[in-house]
Amino acid sequence: MTWLPEASAHAMRIDLLLAGLVVISLAVLGLVFGLMLLNILRFRAGRTTAIARAIAAHKSWRFEIVWTAVTLAIFFALFLWATQLYVVGFRPPAGAIQVYVTGKQWMWKVQYPGGQREINALHVPAGRPVQLLLTSEDVIHDFSIPVLRIKHDVLPGRYQSLWFTADRTGSFRFYCTQFCGLAHSRMTGTLTILSAADYAGWLNSTPASGSLAATGEALFIRSGCSGCHASSRYAPDAADTSRAPSMVGLYGSRVVLADGRAVVADAAFLHDSIVDAPRRPGASFATEMPSFRGVLSEDELAALVAYLQTLSPTLPPSAGN
Ligand code: HEC
Ligand SMILES: [Cu+2]
């Protein structure tokens, strides 16, 4: 659709769903108002009531059941169609490029795995899946890229994930779509979709102070994590889990939480565990994990999460999300 630009196959699917909803709603509207009009004309004052009685005698249960069931089936099919699109939006394919996006009154800070940083700008390659890990440093924001038909609330203290594969190059706007204070309306930025070659060139020409994972490794030592957690497959600390669980192989593994739920340790799990360590049932460690809420900034947390992912090298980044 040219009057509503789209930049991904997902956007086209969302538009198709919208068109389907509109068409079916219009059909229902037409049917209801058409029948109303018909009956207004048929039973208008002055016509003999004999016809009315003849028609009323025709009321049948079969007819009632059929039209109720058919309507229900149509709207249930719409529900399944929409649910499927919604669920897909939260399952990034393995190997997606992970980009960390932090909302803050009133700007968007963006960090790339290579260590590049930007403000109110997002560069991505066309044809490759990109996962956004969204969080806020203050109030609730909402990250929306209309041209890709994706948006999600951005909450302080936890990660939300969105993903997309853009399929055309160009520059488009993204927005904060949750009123978040005085300068909310200026909390926008530019999404630039580049060809694979241009993206590689852009990464090279944008200064970065070491990859995100390398920054995270330094932080892991500086913040004291390494005092409790093993983070190397090699001696000396490889198998030492007396003080705390090992970070090796944690990312992408299945973990059981205190409430009995089993979850896959994805980027959001790592982030949320550092902010507030989950109590594992039956865990007995010599130490207790302190909360790092407010101690580490979201930029630092992103670096730590990127680093912890490299400790599961058999998995491509973001697998298992
Ligand atoms: C004083 C020791 C200590 C320090 C320092 C510490 N942790 Fe922990 N951490 C623990 C313990 C103990 C657990 C297990 C909690 C439980 O299951 O009850 C844990 C749990 C975790 C988990 C969840 C893993 C799981 O298997 O449940 C992550 C992720 C984590 N820590 C990362 C970090 C990072 C990153 C840092 C540094 C910023 C850090 N920890 C600092 C002791 C510590
Ligand atoms: Cu905002």
UniProtKB/TrEMBL annotation:
<dbReference type="InterPro" id="IPR036909">
    <property type="entry name" value="Cyt_c-like_dom_sf"/>
</dbReference>
<keyword id="KW-0812">Transmembrane</keyword>
<keyword id="KW-0249">Electron transport</keyword>
<keyword id="KW-1278">Translocase</keyword>
<dbReference type="GO" id="GO:0020037">
    <property type="term" value="F:heme binding"/>
</dbReference>
<keyword id="KW-0479">Metal-binding</keyword>
<dbReference type="InterPro" id="IPR036257">
    <property type="entry name" value="Cyt_c_oxidase_su2_TM_sf"/>
</dbReference>
<dbReference type="Pfam" id="PF00116">
    <property type="entry name" value="COX2"/>
</dbReference>
<dbReference type="Pfam" id="PF13442">
    <property type="entry name" value="Cytochrome_CBB3"/>
</dbReference>
<dbReference type="InterPro" id="IPR014222">
    <property type="entry name" value="Cyt_c_oxidase_su2"/>
</dbReference>
<comment type="function">
    <text>Subunits I and II form the functional core of the enzyme complex. Electrons originating in cytochrome c are transferred via heme a and Cu(A) to the binuclear center formed by heme a3 and Cu(B).</text>
</comment>
<dbReference type="GO" id="GO:0042773">
    <property type="term" value="P:ATP synthesis coupled electron transport"/>
</dbReference>
<dbReference type="GO" id="GO:0016491">
    <property type="term" value="F:oxidoreductase activity"/>
</dbReference>
<dbReference type="GO" id="GO:0005507">
    <property type="term" value="F:copper ion binding"/>
</dbReference>
<feature type="domain" description="Cytochrome c">
    <location>
        <begin position="211"/>
        <end position="312"/>
    </location>
</feature>
<dbReference type="InterPro" id="IPR045187">
    <property type="entry name" value="CcO_II"/>
</dbReference>
<keyword id="KW-0472">Membrane</keyword>
<keyword id="KW-1133">Transmembrane helix</keyword>
<dbReference type="GO" id="GO:0016020">
    <property type="term" value="C:membrane"/>
</dbReference>
<feature type="transmembrane region" description="Helical">
    <location>
        <begin position="16"/>
        <end position="41"/>
    </location>
</feature>
<keyword id="KW-0186">Copper</keyword>
<dbReference type="InterPro" id="IPR008972">
    <property type="entry name" value="Cupredoxin"/>
</dbReference>
<dbReference type="InterPro" id="IPR009056">
    <property type="entry name" value="Cyt_c-like_dom"/>
</dbReference>
<protein>
    <recommendedName>
        <fullName>cytochrome-c oxidase</fullName>
        <ecNumber>7.1.1.9</ecNumber>
    </recommendedName>
</protein>
<dbReference type="InterPro" id="IPR002429">
    <property type="entry name" value="CcO_II-like_C"/>
</dbReference>
<keyword id="KW-0349">Heme</keyword>
<keyword id="KW-0408">Iron</keyword>
<dbReference type="GO" id="GO:0004129">
    <property type="term" value="F:cytochrome-c oxidase activity"/>
</dbReference>
<comment type="similarity">
    <text>Belongs to the cytochrome c oxidase subunit 2 family.</text>
</comment>
<feature type="domain" description="Cytochrome oxidase subunit II copper A binding">
    <location>
        <begin position="94"/>
        <end position="205"/>
    </location>
</feature>
<dbReference type="InterPro" id="IPR001505">
    <property type="entry name" value="Copper_CuA"/>
</dbReference>
<keyword id="KW-0679">Respiratory chain</keyword>
<keyword id="KW-0813">Transport</keyword>
<feature type="transmembrane region" description="Helical">
    <location>
        <begin position="61"/>
        <end position="82"/>
    </location>
</feature>
